[in-house]
């Protein structure tokens, strides 16, 4: 005859809790870490706040009181930057080039990383090593070959040529980043999809790609930041003022009238350039942190 042991759940006040006492060394490390983080945050945030504050001043106020509050917020600076300085056109050009390149590089990069990570074929490792080598190749060494290549393709000084170059610039990093995510996906899920009758394309787009969503979010953010702030490539390959991107437009605006620059509108232009980057990071901050933590756990 068997007996059953009936146990009642313990109340919260009956549960023993053990608190680990922090040592002096732990407290010292924590204090120093917080101090360093506060200093680093000040280094990053204060220039951004000063730039935002200065964008509401007149040029005379900027030079007479660079760290003071504006007497009257000059919203006209943003109007002058958007219309008079042409920042609106440069902004639209940048949106078109960056998002077109981002979509292409994410599609091609995900497909390349998936094939290299999940399929074994002759030359697989060599192709992956070549992608890794692309991450170590300095972009300024490729400017001259890219210039003549686009010239021979009749794509020099065009948005299409700039988009293709951006894709080639971001593709090695995208493949390198997503390779590890696809490598760790369970093979049993792939086999289950094949048994259910899914083809390779269906398996990739409807099964494997959604499972790699954290990695896709992270690499998309990194690529967006890198392409949005790109300066050397458009300066070398895009000299048509109608196709200028924001980085070129800001430099041209600053040098347009030598010492007669409207500095209020110039700082407003900088704010317009920075704002999309901040918005994208704030929106996708949780996805970025989650994907990085998952990548470290893998």
From TrEMBL:
Biological process according to GO: transmembrane transport
GO cellular component, one term: plasma membrane
Record-linked PANTHER family: ABC TRANSPORTER PERMEASE PROTEIN MG189-RELATED, ABC TRANSPORTER PERMEASE PROTEIN MG189-RELATED-RELATED
The family this protein is said to belong to: Belongs to the binding-protein-dependent transport system permease family.
Keyword Transmembrane listed: yes
Membrane topology: Multi-pass membrane protein
Primary location: membrane
Domain ABC transmembrane type-1: 91-284
Name of the protein this chain belongs to: Sugar ABC transporter permease
Alphabetical UniProt keywords: Cell membrane, Membrane, Transmembrane, Transmembrane helix, Transport
Superkingdom field: Bacteria
């Amino acid at each position: 005859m068997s007996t059953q042991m009936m146990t009642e759940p313990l109340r919260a006040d009956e549960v023993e809790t053990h608190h680990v006492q922090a040592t002096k060394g732990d407290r010292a490390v924590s204090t120093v870490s917080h101090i360093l983080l506060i200093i680093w945050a000040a280094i990053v945030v204060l220039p951004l706040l000063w730039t935002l504050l200065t964008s509401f001043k007149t040029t005379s106020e900027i030079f007479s009181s660079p760290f003071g509050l504006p007497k009257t917020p000059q919203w006209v600076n943003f109007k002058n930057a958007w219309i008079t300085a042409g920042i609106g056109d440069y902004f639209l050009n940048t949106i078109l080039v960056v998002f077109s390149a981002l979509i292409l590089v994410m599609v091609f990069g995900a497909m390349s990383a998936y094939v290299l990570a999940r399929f074994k074929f002759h030359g697989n490792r060599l192709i992956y090593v070549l992608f890794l080598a692309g991450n170590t190749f300095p972009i300024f060494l490729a400017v001259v070959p890219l210039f003549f290549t686009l010239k021979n393709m009749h794509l020099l000084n065009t948005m299409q040529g700039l988009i293709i170059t951006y894709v080639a610039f971001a593709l090695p990093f995208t493949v390198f980043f997503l390779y590890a995510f696809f490598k760790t996906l369970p093979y049993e899920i792939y086999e289950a999809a094949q048994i259910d009758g899914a083809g390779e394309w269906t398996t990739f787009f409807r099964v494997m790609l959604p499972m790699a969503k954290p990695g896709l979010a992270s690499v998309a953010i990194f690529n967006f930041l890198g392409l949005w702030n790109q300066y050397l490539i458009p300066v070398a390959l895009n000299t048509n003022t109608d196709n200028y991107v924001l980085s070129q437009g800001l430099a041209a605006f600053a040098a347009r009238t030598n010492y007669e620059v409207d500095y209020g509108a110039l700082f407003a232009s900088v704010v317009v350039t920075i704002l999309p980057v901040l918005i994208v990071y704030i929106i996708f901050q949780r996805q970025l942190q989650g994907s990085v933590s998952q990548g470290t756990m893998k």
